[in-house]
Amino acid sequence: MTDTSASEALDRAFGLIREIRDYPKPGIGFKDITPLLADPLAFGAVVDSMAEAWRGQVDVVAGIEARGFVLAAPIALALGVGFVPVRKSGKLPHETLGVEYSLEYGTAAIEMHVDAVRPDQRVLVVDDVLATGGTAAATCELVERVGARVAGVSVLLELGFLAGRDRMPGRELSALFRV
Ligand code: AMP
Asked: Which regions of the chain are under pLDDT 50?
């Protein structure tokens, strides 16, 4: 893809993120990326761009359930590294470590397999949306608790007005789009 067509595809991708008002609760503007995922040109450009920003800098990509999986898996393949799932409580079959945290709308708990990453590995944490930053911060904490290093956090869309970035001082954070 040329630079121009890549940037056109990224513009198109941004335009394909739709906001669903008052979902899942009144007052929340939910950023729905399903139209973007359904468009191969837009989806491909997003994956390429999110991967290229970290080429050579990571050994593992950790995706956050559920929309984070959809981005993290192709990013991992594009970078030639493995994918590790970070899941909601009770979903992983092997021994896990977990952490609880607060969301823009409620609370949640996430888990990782204790042997998902090795101590010497640099982990890129991937999710679709950075809102209050609780999920990404909790994932970074989990990665470090299982003994690996957080190379950084990569999100498709940062909701700047929620200042999630401030929950992760000192972390490398890249956002493809920001509103
Ligand atoms: P937070 O922990 O507040 O940064 O929330 C981030 C997580 O919740 C991500 O896994 C997002 O998929 C989801 N999320 C939170 N707020 C929104 C939103 N307004 N639109 C779409 N997803 C959201």
From this structure: none
